[in-house]
Structure formats: C-alpha cells, structure tokens
Amino acid sequence: MATRLRAGRHEVDPALVNILGRKADFSEAGAGRSCTVIGGSGFLGQHMVEQLLAKGYSVNVFDIHKRFESDQVTFFLGDLCDKEALLPALRGVAVVFHCASPAPASDNRELFYRVNFTGTKAVIEACREAGVQKLVLTSSASVVFEGTDIKNGSEDLPYAQKPIDYYTETKILQEKEVLSANDPDNNFFTTAIRPHGIFGPRDPQLVPILVQAARSGKMKFIIGDGKNLVDFTYVENVVHGHILAAEKLHKGSALCGKAFHITNDEPIPFWTFMSRILTGLDYDPPKYHIPYWLAYYLALLLSLLLALLRPLVTIKATFTPMRVALAGTFHYYSCERAKRAMGYSPVVSLDEAIARTVQSYPGLRRARA
After folding, report:
1. Which of 4, 75, 172, 349 is 20 to 30 Å from 285 by CA-CA measure?
2. Tens digit of pLDDT for each residue in 175-195?
3. Residues annotated as part of the active site
4. What is the CATH number of domain 3-202+231-264+332-344?
5. Which helix (H) or strand (E) is 60 found in, with range?
C-alpha cells in the first residue's frame, strides 16, 4: 500500500484506490460503510477493526503507534491532540469510533487530561471540519462510580462528584464534551458507550496482571465476603454495542447525545470471576478472607505513608483504596436503555467468554512440575 510520510503522519496518495482488495468507495452510496477507528491499534481498537471489516466496512485506523499489519486497513499515525494530523484520517468517512485512552492503571494525571479531554476536543473539531456525521465514544461505566455500591445502575445516575482516579475524572470530562457536541441541525450526531470490566483475548491488562499477582503470591486473600456482584464484559460484546450504536445513530434517534451501558448482562461475584480465570490457567484461587473495612483502611494508611515519604522516595503502590473499592463493592449496571434504543443483547455469554479468554493465553498457564 503506497503512502507518503510527511511531518510525522501519513498522507494518503490521491491515486490510492485499492482497499480491502477492491476499489475504495467514497461515493454517497458507500459513505455509510466507511469509518475511522481512533485508537485502533489498542486492545479494544483491534477487535473493533476486525469486526468492522467482517461486516464490510472500509476502515481507517488513527493511532500514535501501528501495532498490527493489515492490507485491509489504511493506517494514519499521529497525535490525536493535533487536529491537522487527524483530518486526513477523517475525510470521506461517515463514522468515527473514538476508543483511544491511556491505560486506566496509569497514574499520570497530565497524560489522562491531555488525551481524554484535550484530545477529544480536537477529535470533535476535526470531525466537524471533515464532514463526519457520527461520533461514537468509548466512555466507561466508572463515570458514575465513587467507590460505593451500585446495583443495576442506570444511565440516569449522576456523574461521580468524587471520581476514584484520574482516568475516571477525565472520562467524565470527555463524555460531557462528546454528548454536548451532538448537533442534529448540522448533521452531526454523537453518542457514548459505557462498557465495564472489558476482557478477552490479547488484553494486556487484566489477565496478565492477575497472573503476575498470582505468581508473586499476592492472590491469596478475598476482600470482603466475596459476594459483591460486578460486571465483566467480553470485548466482542463491547464492539457489538459500538457498531449497533453507529448504525442506529441518526437524526431523531434515541441515541443522540446520550450514553449507554454495555455489559455482558450477567453480573458475577468479583472473586468468582477472578478465581475462574486463575483456575483456568492452573493457579490456585484466593481462599482467605479479609474484612472490607480493614483492607480499605490499610490501603488508605499505606497511601498516606507513601505520600509522606514522597519527598524522599517515590514508590508506586499497588494496594490502594481505589483497588480495594473495585474488588470489594457491588458495581454492575443495567443495559435496558441499550436494549430498547439499539436492540442490544450480548453475542457471547460469560461462560463462553471466560473459556475463550483462558484458552487464548497458553503462555501464561502455570507450568506443572
């Protein structure tokens, strides 16, 4: 595929017409099946690209890195905070899926603010300038979570007044920007998808981190009574929700300027899910209980101690009040709004999702003596 590189980003040769083994269709008839995935080199983004291609979309990927090869995709490299870098990737497409974000585990507030807030404002401006009709944001159910129980929470819950981390704080700002940008009078429609606990094959976060903790002997304790229900959502279901949203998003639809929870619709005890992943990879599940209040205050005490020591030494804590809250409280969400507005239902059950995920990590399986 011929591209020419200028100023750190790809500029597509106008003569380039062969995409997906056929001529690129930028006519009015084909415009509705053309899209750009911002963050398409990431975990969710790669799965989204694969499903879009399978459905016959022509796909651009915009990302700061190129992490996979495909002659079916047109790649654009650049910083999403740079509107001029975004524009070539957005011209001629009907739909933009924005799923770029730093990993939630990061503690870099400046990076979160720059990518999730400043970058999203640039995305909105570029979409408008490029004539994009639909913008679908990957938000997060955590935008309403403050570390206390949420049971079957709806999208009508208020945004968290005390976000649990920088990721959540900036996802709130990001979602507000995207939803308020909905502008039917100018043929620009926006919606936000709020998944929770995304997992699946090729995930660089949940399973690898869980196995690392098990190997280092840190997965022996269950925080609380182990009965707290949580949503874990298979990546294919998350992608399915995004594509449904894009296809149902139009003038007068119930999706315009609204957010929607997308989950597996099968809440499961947090520690049951973790144990199923661990035992599936031949590790021992946690079996000792520690009271939730004790774990929380120990984590809080540790955080205060590290804050006092910070002028002398910087230590990144892995045992934090936020992580204790995520592991020890109820937080699961209703998908009823998505079912009504876009006909959503999970395409992969939780049992099948766990089985597929475990099978996809043969290199992390515990070696038997």
Report:
1. 349
2. 999 999 999 999 999 999 999
3. 167
4. 3.40.50.720
5. strand 58-63
